[in-house]
DNA sequence: ACGTTGACCT
């Protein structure tokens, strides 16, 4: 089996030279290899398809399946139409329908799905449980739960997958209550059914319910453990994540890459360096390579735990990086205050042919902001859209406003905020307001605080900052006035907190709390 | 020769 595009090219060239390519079976094999290899070679498979004089249904199926699970499932629909119209002597078979229906589901195109359902009935394929299950999933995915239910109730040969196909959509949409009603009603359940229900609760942050389902399960696999652990991790309950991982090991369930990624992000979240190192050592012991997701998670963990050197080490030795891996490294340098290094990694990233995304630019701009790289930040902000086609979002404006504010370029910052899309500008005004405070610019501060309170009278930052500015200028009566307004609206400041790891134990303390 | 339902990183 070919694993790289160059191997595919070699095979293709050989087949053209020997005339093997003219044989439909051989051509199909090559195309299948291209469409299903892990590398992004779907377009290459499409090229082979186009060059084949008389593609058969199998080749159509292979390509439709490839596109159905790609980011552009509409091409699968197009190919299905081409099969119906262009090739009169070819007909879709039962496989074609499962693939094209999958495309309808991911596109939420219920109209097309219904038409294809009609074809299925016309061609006498209504008995096929695979097709019916895909239809069920399609109707549910498009929000047509009544249609799905109607079909499910009338299906003579429904099985556990039929029920799961609908349940999975309830869960995916976060409709946990409906999911649970449906789940309770299911006459047959398998491990997947339980895992769906469990991850439904876990993803909605309903950890007690998730836990209850988990404890009720007679059989659990690594997916079950991962679902629960991920739920705790997403709720920021990192200490419990580490406890659950201990339980998992005691239950002798072997962690997989997903487990380790979640574990590392938990370590990163609480700065648990020792546990993070343990995960890294575990990977080494078990021959698990630090690539892709795991490399990203390790880089992130080491840099959040303060070990930028270790982060660099992992990054440099990762043979397979993706955009997120690069982003994690840039963020790492950024938060450690190494602005120039962050920019250097960015140019390497581009040189290596990676396409930066909006996260990349948040990291870059905040690197500039922290390191005070004013000139560079303007250049990056401008290139972001003109070269890379990424529209600046609130975060990007925020970084720039922050930087301008730090340099005391308050007028410029204000002009930038005025140019922003109106939605969500509150936080940016807050950032600028604190810059005004640092530079003692009372006039602009009052102007901004006024805007802020007008936009959101509940906003505590506006009150707090404005009162601080008055306080710094000795305007005590204004301070008292604002504090009284705050009490009236019951606005209060949430206490700040921090975490630190000492000897492998993570401690949390709140601002104003004693150390001992 | 092909098919239905699964959780993870910035």
From TrEMBL:
Molecular-function annotations in GO: mRNA binding
InterPro entries assigned: E_motif, PPR_At4g14850-like_plant, PPR_rpt, TPR-like_helical_dom_sf
Residues annotated as transmembrane: none
Key word Plastid present: no
PANTHER family: PENTATRICOPEPTIDE REPEAT-CONTAINING PROTEIN, PENTATRICOPEPTIDE REPEAT-CONTAINING PROTEIN ELI1, CHLOROPLASTIC-LIKE ISOFORM X2
UniProt similarity note: Belongs to the PPR family. PCMP-H subfamily.
Name assigned to this protein: Pentacotripeptide-repeat region of PRORP domain-containing protein
